[in-house]
Design goal:
The complex is a heterodimer of chains A (567) and B (155).
Chain A (H helix, E strand, L loop, with lengths): L3 E3 H11 L4 E4 L6 H8 L5 E4 L3 H13 L5 E5 L3 H15 L4 E7 L15 H5 L5 E4 L6 H13 L5 E7 H5 L1 E3 L19 H13 L3 E5 L1 H5 L3 H11 L3 E3 L14 E4 L6 H9 L2 E5 L5 H4 L2 H4 L5 E6 L13 E4 L2 H14 L6 H15 L15 H11 L5 E4 L3 H9 L8 E2 L10 H11 L5 E6 L9 H7 L5 E6 L4 H10 L15 H7 L3 E5 L5 H10 L5 E6 L23
Parallel strand pairs in A: 2-3, 2-4, 4-5, 5-7, 6-7, 9-10, 9-12, 10-11, 12-13, 13-14, 15-16, 15-17, 17-18, 18-20, 19-20
Antiparallel strand pairs in A: 1-8
Helix pairs in contact in A: 1-2, 1-6, 3-4, 3-18, 8-14, 10-14, 11-15, 16-17, 16-22
Chain B lengths: L6 H11 L6 E6 L6 E6 L4 H13 L14 E12 L4 H11 L3 E5 L3 E8 L1 H10 L5 E6 L3 E4 L8
Antiparallel strand pairs in B: 1-2, 3-5, 3-6, 3-7, 4-5
The chains are: A alpha/beta (567), B alpha+beta (155).
The complex binds flavin-adenine dinucleotide, thiamine diphosphate and magnesium ion.
């Protein structure tokens, strides 16, 4: 007879079997047996955060930057409710996470026990799936299923709720090699008939456009995508979530599209005759008003692993349900096998038009300004890091400038909350990125409002010596909110002004880090160089930027893609 | 779907969180106790119904979804209805129940309880035919559906 293990031991053994090297968590009564087992081993390293939201964001940053499943561990009740923002953030961006939560003992469930919440109920709408494990003999299989579900198909967070008594009981430990579930069989191969149709449309296109999103990053298909785009010679745009899916410095890249996308990307999107959408979900911040989008006639090919992403907001002509690498491989095969070539003359004319749009120089700003322009900070950040850093961001104007001005040539380098738009994401996500990439250069672009939503994590960074570089674009405003109030609410800046800001330099120093305040445009570059030279220190750079700067172009809510406000 | 605790709430939650309407929903275990079968009646444009189908399929515990109204199918609903039945009304109610192929399953000297099965519109028609003020209580199960002939939903 094999020896019996406790539920807590089994939990930790499962994590070891999955090859988990770091988990992010915060202890409490309901998970004490699990913490005790973590203590007794050293394969799975636990990172102690300062707030459960940060545990999940850190696991999320870890996953986004590495394509491994991120793992977080939280206690019952308030531990779980604190984690919900992090879980919803990961859900909206389809990030593979496993969240293990403690629960009150099974006999106490439903009795309003101390620190009891209906975790499965609260998290149901923001997880890919969740489980309450009431029977210890199902624990190992459930954890296996959680990793399987989180990382396959359209990825997403999966929560496993473990009552305290289950972590204490004993059973024989067998970790299944694989699980199969009759009700969950994600597809990979696309329908070959559909792919053939797509090839026909692509070859017949006169004004083609390739629009790619987070799916390319999530499925590690950037290299394949680059091959296809280069082979065809078509223009390519990325969503906010898709940046790095195609090299931003390449001449076929027309920039990000959408609400704050480039003029050329949005115009090309609106006026193309064949649109190839790859792992992108026609978000409202991307195509603006769908009715206006329909004003132009175009055929749409849509490759996505999730059928519900297809024809949800925009009707498509050739849906291809499948995983991007598989579908692109088949597409490349067909394109290479056929003799037909894209219509070069039409393509040349199309590029001439796109270059005219490009000449509008939609991202220009006043480079001679005596006050620091936030765009310039990002440009210098790009230069100083050689374009090689991992950049996390918070939410607001700074996020958009980071997306527009840092040219991502590689996938998994741009880490931000797109779907939920969670302020407070940047710093804890950067911690996760650093754990997944110990040798990597990691910077967090943030604003003075966002950074204060998880500022407590500066303490975690000290404990683990994380040499993050924080780039605070300090405009003394909730800039993105102020911008909307300026444009759409008659300059009434209701509660978007940040009064009583802390002295960020002293704040950073009090946590044991290096703080810098930069007020002159001429000092930006030297400050960045100095900060990045401090390889083993966290440096908080407080850039005092132009309070009035706005993000352009902008497609106002309800407007069409080509109805941009330009500078 | 898998006959598991929580599966029903996932379906119900999906409908409320995405703003789809549920006209009726019935669910019970099948001859295979690991599976339960749900019949859900909803209404919406083709686009909405397509999204509902896709979203249901995404739920991990949902094994298979078919739109019964895509083909020939049979739909039945059970209604229990308690009527005030005194004097000459007793005869009349009994006669109507017979016409609708209902059965009187409980009797007191003041009331009849009738069991009636059929499509939703047949049950509606019966209620229409009854005098409003005589209806004391009704309870309906919502529709259960099955394909006609060889059309089988099985996994
Ligand atoms: C302040 C702010 C401003 C914003 N402005 C913009 C903007 O200007 N432009 C912009 O683009 N976004 C913007 N966003 C982000 C926006 O809200 C959406 O998050 C984003 O556009 C969605 O990106 P996506 O379409 O790439 O989809 P994602 O959310 O990344 O979804 C990925 C898609 O890929 C699919 N997929 C996953 N894995 C695979 C696979 N293996 N094979 C095939 N398919 C797969 C998924 O099913 C899904 O449909 C903004 C957000 C904020 C907070
Ligand atoms: C948790 C959370 N609350 C509120 C918002 C709404 N919101 C979006 S941007 C923004 C302001 C962000 O200010 P700051 O971090 O200073 O960035 P800036 O726009 O000034 O660059 C707010 C409040 C949000 N996205 N997230
Ligand atoms: Mg600000």
């Amino acid at each position: 007879m094999s020896t019996e293990l406790t539920g807590a031991e089994i939990t930790v053994r499962c994590l070891q079997k999955e090859g988990v090297d770091h988990i992010f968590g915060y202890p409490g009564g309901a998970v004490l047996y699990i913490y005790d087992e973590l203590f007794k081993q050293d394969k799975v390293k636990h990172v102690l955060v300062r707030h459960e939201q940060a545990a999940v964001h850190a696991a999320d940053g870890y996953a986004r930057s590495s394509n491994r499943v991120g793992v977080a561990l939280v206690t019952s009740g308030p531990g779980v409710t604190n984690a919900v923002t992090g879980i919803a953030t990961a859900y909206m961006d389809s990030i593979p996470l496993v969240i293990i939560s403690g629960q009150v003992p099974t006999h106490a469930i439903g009795l309003d026990a101390f620190q009891e919440v209906d975790t499965v109920g609260i998290t149901r709408p923001c997880v890919k799936h969740n489980f309450l494990v009431k029977d210890i003999t199902e624990l190992a299989t459930t954890i296996k299923k959680a990793f399987y579900i989180a990382s396959t198909g359209r990825p997403g967070p999966v929560l496993v709720d473990i009552p305290k008594d289950v972590s204490q009981q004993k059973t024989a430990f067998v970790y299944p090699e694989r699980v199969s579930m009759r009700s969950y069989n994600p597809v990979t191969k696309g329908h070959s008939g559909q792919i053939k149709k797509a090839v026909q449309l692509i070859l017949g296109a006169k004004r083609p456009m390739i629009y790619t999103g987070g799916g390319v990053i999530l499925s590690d298909a950037a290299a394949r995508l680059t091959d296809v785009v280069r082979m065809l010679g078509f223009p390519c745009t990325n969503t906010l979530m898709g940046l790095g899916g195609y090299p931003a410095t390449d001449k076929q890249f027309v920039g990000m599209l959408g609400m704050h996308g480039t003029y050329e990307a949005n115009m090309a999107m609106q006026h193309c005759d064949v649109l190839v959408a790859i792992g992108a979900r026609f978000d409202d911040r991307v195509i603006g008003n769908p009715k206006h989008f329909y004003n132009e006639d175009r055929k749409i090919i849509h490759i996505d692993i999730d059928p519900s992403s297809i024809s949800k907001r925009v009707k498509v002509d050739v849906p291809i349900v499948g995983s991007i690498p598989d579908v692109l491989d088949e597409l490349i095969k067909l394109l290479k096998a056929g003799k037909e070539q894209p219509d070069q003359a039409a393509l040349d004319a199309w590029w001439t038009q796109i270059d005219l749009w490009r000449a509008r120089d939609c991202l220009k700003y006043d480079r001679a300004s005596p006050i620091i322009k936030p765009q310039m900070v990002i440009e210098k950040l790009y230069e100083v890091t050689g374009g090689n850093a991992f950049i996390t961001s918070d939410v607001g104007q700074h996020q958009m400038w980071a997306a527009q001005f840092y040219k991502f040539d590689l996938p998994r380098r741009w880490i931000n909350s797109g779907g939920l738009g969670t302020m407070g994401f940047g710093l804890p996500a950067a911690m996760g990125v650093q754990f997944a990439n110990p040798e990597g250069t990691v910077a967090c672009v943030t604003g003075e409002a966002s950074i204060q939503m998880c500022i407590q994590e500066l303490s975690t960074c000290k404990q683990y010596n994380l040499p993050l570089k924080i780039v605070n674009l300090n405009n003394r405003y909730m800039g993105m909110v102020r911008q909307w109030q300026e444009f759409f609410h008659g300059n009434r800046y209701a509660e978007s002004y940040m009064d009583a800001l802390p002295n960020f330099v002293k704040l950073a120093e009090s946590y044991g880090h290096v703080g810098m305040k930069i007020e002159q445009p001429g000092d930006i570059e030297d400050a960045l160089k100095e900060a990045f030279k401090l390889k083993d220190r966290l440096v908080f750079m407080d850039f005092i930027t132009d309070q009035t700067e706005n993000v352009f172009p902008m497609v106002p809510g309800g407007k069409g893609l080509s109805e941009m406000i330009l500078v | 779907m898998e006959n598991e605790a929580g599966a029903l709430s996932r379906v119900a939650g999906l409908f409320s969180s995405r703003g789809y309407n549920i006209e009726s929903l019935t669910v019970a275990a099948t001859e295979d106790p690991t599976l339960s079968r749900m019949t859900l009646v909803t209404a919406g444009s083709d686009d909405v119904v397509e999204q509902i189908t896709k979203q249901l399929n995404k739920l991990i515990e949902v094994v298979k979804v078919v739109d019964l109204s895509d083909g020939d199918h049979i739909e039945r609903e059970l209604m229990l209805i308690k009527m005030r039945a005194v004097g000459k009304d007793r005869e009349e109610i009994k006669r109507m129940a017979d016409i609708f192929r209902g059965r009187i399953i409980d009797v007191t000297d003041k009331s009849y309880t009738i069991e009636l099965t059929g499509t939703g519109s047949k049950l509606d028609a019966f209620l229409e035919a009854m005098e409003r003020s005589a209806i004391l209580e009704t309870v309906r199960t919502g529709a259960s559906g099955i394909g006609r002939g060889e059309r089988i939903l099985k996994i």
